[in-house]
Amino acid sequence: MQTDYVIPFVDSSDREWVGTYRKYAPTDCSWSSNATRFRDWDLLRYQLRSISRHLPWIHRIYIVLSVSEGQVPRWLNRDNDRVRVVWDWEFIPREYLPTFNSNVIDLFIPRIEGLSEYYLYACDDYLILRDLQPGDFFSDNGIRVRMRDSVFSPSVYTDTIKNSVRLIRGKDSPSLTPQDGKYRLPYCDHAIIPHLKSENLRVLEEYREDIRASLSRFREPKNLTWLIYPLHMAREGRHGGSPLRSRYHALYNEECIRNINFGGCDVITLNDEYGGNFYYGKAMLGKTLESILPGKSEFEIQ
User: Can you tell me the distance from the alpha carbon of 70 to that of 159, in angstroms, rounded to the nearest whole number?
Assistant: First the structure.
């Protein structure tokens, strides 16, 4: 089973990227309120190390970038045939570019040229901590992912999930009715999500007009999300539970960095919610990650 791995990446220290962001950003979309979506904690380096160590069977890794060559990490070994930089304009219709909305990128991933039928998709803040096998992600006829109802308060993010549920399950889905002002919506754990390219392309075609109408350069309540793909697989009876143990850990402050628990899970997400001195926090986290995943991988310039 040839399996690829796709990672979207952005580095907001790149001046050309920031200049393009500010050129297109609406007046109500301040940089300060969005910075945590784009800061580079150097987690991509350690994610690639974790793939090398714990998922050696991955065929090729696609790193999705946009706008500028300044986005390419200086340490990345582009001579390695197992890693490929892919630009958003290669698979997203150009009328929707540039985009600073991960929802747009997520939806068009199955259009990447050369992508395997089986692929895994994860943001750059995921680390694999145990040896895993293809059977942990894929079954004989579909995908394995833990999906369960979660409680969401009203927000733009919640709107995008509601839109995705409405599209796949129908406008009369019980999940769309709020209870005590909140919604119980189907959602996947913060984990690496497996995909079948042919099924996702089928969804892209079947709901072409709805998907195109949902697109925007920045996040808006009308957006759809990648959730439409596992929801489709579940509707088709091609979804099963996942054996993976996933953990979400928010980086709020220095104490949160000091107290990361890497034990007892297969995959951990280190999400940027940091409000302190970013460079100090990044240095702290770097020391911790170097102790967990020491030594360069083949994906780094030696």
Answer: 33
Which DSSP state fits 148? E
Determine what percent of the chain falls in helix, strand and coil, rounding each to the nearest 5: 35, 20, 45
Q: Is the pLDDT of residue 33 over 70?
A: no
Q: How far apart are CA 33 and CA 18, in angstroms?
A: 14
d(CA 26, CA 46): 34
Length in residues, the chain: 302
Query: What is the SS3 assignment for 140?
Result: coil
The residues spanned by each domain of the chain are: 3-292
Q: Please, what is the end-to-end C-alpha distance for the chain in angstroms? A: 30
pTM for this entry:
0.94
- DSSP-assigned letters across all residues of 212-259: HHH--SS--TT---TTHHHHHHHHTT-EE-----EEEEEE-SHHHHHT
Task: Give CA–CA dist 201/179, Å, rounded.
Answer: 34
Q: What is the DSSP string of 39-91?
A: ---SHHHHHHHHHHHH-TT---EEEEE-S-GGGS-TTB-TT-TTEEEEEGGGT
**Comparison of pLDDT for 302 and 44, the residue scoring more:** 44
Return the bridge partners of 268, or none: 127, 247
User: What is residue 213's predicted lDDT score, i.e. its pLDDT?
Assistant: 97
> Do 281 and 32 touch, CB atoms closer than 8 A?
no
3-292 CATH: 3.90.550.10
pLDDT tens across 51-65, in order?
999 999 999 999 999
